[in-house]
Amino acid sequence: MSKSDHPSFHLRLPPHLLKQVKLPSVEIERSITAEILARLERTFADDDADRREAVKLLTDAISLLDKGGRG
């Protein structure tokens, strides 16, 4: 997919957020846009991992409650 296939929009960042995004992008030699995209993707991936862990914990808890009710 080429860059022209991606929708674009303008984003206004407060100076302190711009600094927080710009410094790591310079350190690893990538654009600010690439840094913002990487952070967004990581955030959503973390949310998915947290959701999977919560479902596992709830499933385990229900299983324990079911076993306790039969004994």
Q: Helix segment count?
A: 2
β-sheet strand percentage: under 5%
Helix fraction bin: over 70%
N- to C-terminal separation? 58 Å
Determine the structural class based on helices, strands and strand pairing. Answer: mainly alpha
Q: What is the number of independent domains?
A: 1
Number of E-type strands: 0
H-E string: HH
Assembly state of the chains shown: single chain
- Low-confidence spans: pLDDT under 50, at least 5 residues? none
* Silhouette: elongated
- Report on the biggest sheet: none
- What is the residue-mean pLDDT, rounded to a whole number? 86
Give your account of this protein's structure.
This protein has helices at 15-27, 32-70. It has 71 residues and is mainly α. The chain has one domain. Helix 1 crosses helix 2 (32-70). The protein is elongated, with a radius of gyration of 21 Å. The termini are far apart. The model has no long low-confidence stretch (mean pLDDT 86).
